[in-house]
Design goal:
Length: 137
């Protein structure tokens, strides 16, 4: 009996399940102007189920930048479809609006660009990364 190889999301799911409770409580979160783990809760674009995703993020004070080398990740597509999300940072949930970039272009349906941070995100996304800027609501 042969089994098909597991996909990356299937392999990473158990690790995410172990990490999520600690990240939600603030473990390994970035300090202001620092980088660390954050947790975002984003609504599935088809299922409408809230998905919890631990990511590496950088806290710039008024916004948090998160990115992935897997630009086709489901959280990227979900956040682009519905830019309203919840960010857990230092044990506190914060409502955010995302601006999502991939391949040098903005792909979400949200608000207008806000300057230098958007230009940097657009540049970074040209390298194959998907980048989301999470601004507090």
């Amino acid at each position: 009996m042969t089994t098909s190889p597991r996909t990356f999301p299937e392999l990473i799911a158990p690790l995410n399940d172990m990490v999520i409770p600690g990240v939600r409580r603030g473990f390994a979160n970035p300090w202001p102007l620092g980088t660390g783990l954050v947790l975002i809760e984003v609504m599935g674009r088809k299922s409408l189920i809230t998905r919890k995703v631990p990511l590496v993020g950088t806290d710039y004070g008024s916004l948090v930048a998160v990115s992935t080398v897997r630009s086709e990740s489901q959280w990227v597509k979900n956040l682009a479809a519905n830019p309203a999300a919840r960010l857990w940072l230092r044990g506190t949930p914060r409502e955010v609006l995302a601006r999502v970039y991939r391949d040098g272009a903005r792909i979400d349906t949200g608000t207008a660009d806000e300057g230098v941070s958007d230009a940097l995100a657009r540049q970074l996304s040209q390298t194959g990364l998907a980048v989301a800027l999470l601004g507090y609501r």
